[in-house]
Amino acid sequence: MDHRDIPIDVILDIYTRILRIRRFEEEVGKLFRQGQLPGFVHLYIGEEAVAAGVCAALTDEDTIISTHRGHGHVIAKGGDIKRMMAELFGKASGYCKGKGGSMHIADFDIGMLGACGIVGGGIPVAVGAGLSAWYSASERVSLCFFGDGAANEGSFHESLNLASALNLPVIFVCENNQYGEFTPASRAMNIEDIAARAAGYGIPGIIADGSDALEMYRIATAAVQRARAGQGPTLIEAKTHRSGGHAEGEEAFLAGQQYRGEAELAQARAKDPLRLLHTYVAEKDLIPADQLESLDEGITRALREAVAFARESPLPEVDSIYDDLWL
Amino acid sequence: MPRKTYIAAVQEALAEEMRRDPQVLLIGEDVRIGVFAGTRGLHAEFGDKRVIDTPISELAVAGAGIGAAVTGLRPVVDLMFGTFMFLAFDQIANQAGAMRYMYGGQTNVPVVFMTQNGAGSSAGHHHSQSVHQFFMNMPQIKVVLPSTPYDVKGLLKSAIRDENPVIFLNSLSLGGKRGAVPDEEYLVPLGVADIKRAGNDVSICAVGSAVYTALSAANALAKEGIDAEVIDLRTLSPWDSDAVLESVRKTGRFVAVDESFPTCSAASEWAATVAERAFHDLKAPVQRVNNKDVPVPFSPVLEKAVLPSAEDVIAAVRRTLE
Questions:
Q1: What element of type H or E holds B230?
Q2: Residue B102 and residue A99: Cβ atoms within 8 Å?
């Protein structure tokens, strides 16, 4: 890969986003295994380049909508890891005051319009955010993350067609991590590339290497420019990999069954986006190693503080079940 | 006061609110043409940008309304027939009603989903089911079903100004019904019942077209000296239980008339509430009058047989007097 035209500060910014997501997710995995987090969590490890590269191409005014595997999107959009961690702990200081949890984190102040626990459920809402941007003659674009599983939902079809018919500034980013829960995408669809479906809506469909954060950034930037210029939606298919399972603790559902071979897992892990970007940066000597090291230390420290904040935060008052109802 | 049709009142409410607030827009299939005339003529006044024809994609259009609402607009989403709302169920149930609460109060969802409700046009099951009862079961979704042109206009204007998701149902069979509608501005608040006929012997509660069934029964009963009170709830969620309970405390008898399937119907909820909270005021068991528990058939004679009739209501009232 050669991304000489991408400024170093942008590369550093993207690297920082990836690292922040990675360390956050590693910590969440650990906390989950220790039984400290209620519910269940879907980790984004292995897919960080998509959110980081794409969100680096957005402004604070642009909006995103996320999925059940949403921590990475929130962090990439600039979310506060303290309030995220507190939400995962079910605390009152969390983003949703403990009412959303892992699959429903939102931060409307930074244009993060919410993660969604229904596969494909966020896509129509993103079309509405695009409608709103168009209606207000704003420069804003609406971007939606979803997985390969969602590409087989009716909401995908209806939403891409609607956005195209109305020529709205919406960018559809399909994170094809090859699995809908435990079912391989190859068993769920008879085509290789989800991007090919874009032709059916008369919009560009672009295949991207979802392990290459800088390629994601470049492709997203072009789609954003297109949307801002009033040229309508784009479908980006990022070929990516889950380096872990569908959800942490999934062994309980699998009851000893295997759905993914060791060879395939090793292949996926070889495409680790953090290592790939680190190698690129090191080989080209773009950012000094000690700077990257102190960046990692800073993130690790911030994460420790986030966990402490979450642990020390009070649980929600039970009476708060009646807060934030009808206005 | 000028007399206007029910559907003209819909049109007037939309036009007035769109003139008043530039953030109000209308989206849906054939809103330019206005299949039921409720949106007719609005495109000529407000143009392409505010009256937006969409593909027949109920799920995406409903979701787009929600997405627009959480980013600053006040969309009215026309979903044409109530039954078509089932295609949009995910967005309404999982997003519209939940977003504000689920995201800890970070957003409001000021969207109106407008559609026709119920039977009466011999269109067969897919265009004749009532849907209001499904949405009553969803927290944080308001449900409105007016019976008169006056109420339609005042309630729709309130619904558009409401900060929460509102399902605004027009009774399909009442579109041509005429009634007094002022030209000047007025609002009817959501969640407040209206006594359409005062009486002392029995309380009959209804919404939408069933209000006329109830009134017709009340008029027939009056000839026998039975004085029925007819309560038009107008809003089904939140519903004015105080008005109903107050009436039942006066009459001691309760009949719920509801054009939906009996199990978990609106009538079930009203009856349960009355039994729970006014039991000692009751002189007789509560009665429900619903559709027959079958899909809505096509042939006019069959369709009529499935819907609650005035005779059914009269019979229910008699049971409370036994």
A1: strand B228-232
A2: yes
Cα A15 from chain centre: 15
Query: Which ipTM score applies to this complex?
Result: 0.96
Residue that the structure tokens 């505010």 belong to: B50
> Mutate which of A119, A125, A159 to test chain B, going by most B C-beta atoms within 10 A?
A125
Please, which residues have CB within 8 angstroms of residue B228's CB and are 6 or more apart in sequence? B197, B199, B201, B202, B203, B204, B214, B217, B218, B221, B222, B317
Q: B88 in helix, strand or coil?
A: helix
A78-99 residue pLDDT tens: 999 999 999 999 999 999 999 9
Which segments in chain A show pLDDT lower than 50? none
Determine the residue among A91, A162, A167 to mutate to test chain B binding: the one whose Cβ has the most chain B Cβ atoms within 10 Å: A162
- Give chain B positions within 8 Å (CB) of A135: 25, 49, 68, 73
All structural domains of chain A, each given as residue ranges with its CATH number in brackets, are 8-244+271-313 (3.40.50.970)
Query: What are the pLDDT digits (tens) for B25-80?
Result: 999 999 999 988 899 999 999 999 999 999 999 999 999 999 999 999 999 999 99
- Domains in chain B (CATH in brackets) are 3-180 (3.40.50.970), 194-321 (3.40.50.920)
Q: Which residues of B touch A (CB under 8 A)?
A: 25, 27, 49, 52, 54-55, 57, 59-73, 75, 90-91, 94-95, 99-108, 140, 142, 163-164, 238
